[in-house]
Amino acid sequence: MKTASCYFSYHHGNTLKVAEAMAEAGDVDLIDLRTRQTVHLEEYDCIGLASGIYGFSVHKSVVDFARQYLPAKKPVFFVYTYGGAKGSGAKALYQIAAEKECPVLGEFSCRGFNTFGPFKLFGGSGKGLPSEEDLRRAKTFYQDLCQK
C-alpha cells in the first residue's frame, strides 16, 4: 500500500520519530508540511496525517492542509504525539475526513518529550519518549493498517 504520511513535527521531533518508524514498516513517503512541498495525494492509496498536540489539538497547519489537499474518499489515518494530555486530539481531522467521505482506518498516539510552558522549568516531562516500545507499536499499527 503506497502511503503518504503528511506530518508537522516541531519542538522535539516526537511526531517525526513516529512517522519514521511507520515508514520503516512499509511503502511510506514522508511529507514535511513545514517545507510546503507540492504534493499530489491522489497518487497514494492511503494518507496519514500526523502532528504533535498544540493547544489541545493537532497543529492548525495540518488541519488547513487536510482541508485543502486531502482528496475525497481517500482512506486516511491519524497520528499524534502529546506531552501531558491528548486534548481533543484529531477531532478536527475526523470532521474533515467525514466531510470528504474519507474512511478513517485508525488512529495512533503516544506521549512525547515536552518542554512547553511550566514543564520547561523542570527540564521537561516525558523524557525519553516516544520510547522504543512506542515506536515498535507505531510500526505494528501501520503494518496492521496494510493488512486491512
How would you describe this protein?
With 148 residues, the protein is of the alpha/beta class. The chain has a single domain (3-147), classed as Rossmann fold (3-Layer(aba) Sandwich). The chain is 31% helix and 25% strand. It has 4 helices and 6 strands; from the N terminus they run E-H-E-E-E-H-E-H-E-H. Strands 1, 2, 3, 4, 5 and 6 form a 6-stranded mixed beta sheet that branches. Strand 3 and strand 4 form a beta hairpin. Helix 1 (14-24) packs across helix 4 (132-147) and helix 2 runs parallel beside helix 3 (91-99). The termini are close together.
Largest sheet: 6 strands, mixed
Average pLDDT works out at: 88
Uncertain runs are none
Which homologous superfamily in CATH is the superfamily?
Answer: Flavodoxin domain
Distance between the termini: 10 Å
Structure summary, number of beta strands: 6
Layout of strands and helices, then pairs:
Layout: E1 3-8, H1 14-24, E2 28-32, E3 46-54, E4 57-58, H2 60-69, E5 76-82, H3 91-99, E6 104-111, H4 132-147
Parallel strand pairs: 1-2, 1-3, 3-5, 5-6
Antiparallel strand pairs: 3-4
